[in-house]
Amino acid sequence: MKTVTLEQAQKQLDKLIDLIAAGEEVTITLDGHPVARMAAPRLLQQLPSLADLRARLPMQTESAGDFIRRLRDSERY
């Protein structure tokens, strides 16, 4: 992890961006205290497609309206 002052960061922003793109993490300090940390974004995990999920769900035998009416009319409510 590279640490630079705010002045250095302003002067060398293009070089810092190259470091970050290469996977380096950069901390910017002001008066000796860290005020910012810059790092390349983590890649998001690829989520399965919604169509695949729907294809694996069992087919419903009852309409949504009938299901809600059955729940509403049950003794629980």
From TrEMBL:
Identify the InterPro entries for this entry.
Antitoxin_Phd/YefM, YefM-like_sf
Could you name the domain of life of the organism this protein comes from? Bacteria
**Pfam families, sorted:** PhdYeFM_antitox
In which family does this protein belong, per the annotation? Belongs to the phD/YefM antitoxin family.
The job of this chain, per UniProt, is described as: Antitoxin component of a type II toxin-antitoxin (TA) system.
Q: What is this protein called?
A: Antitoxin
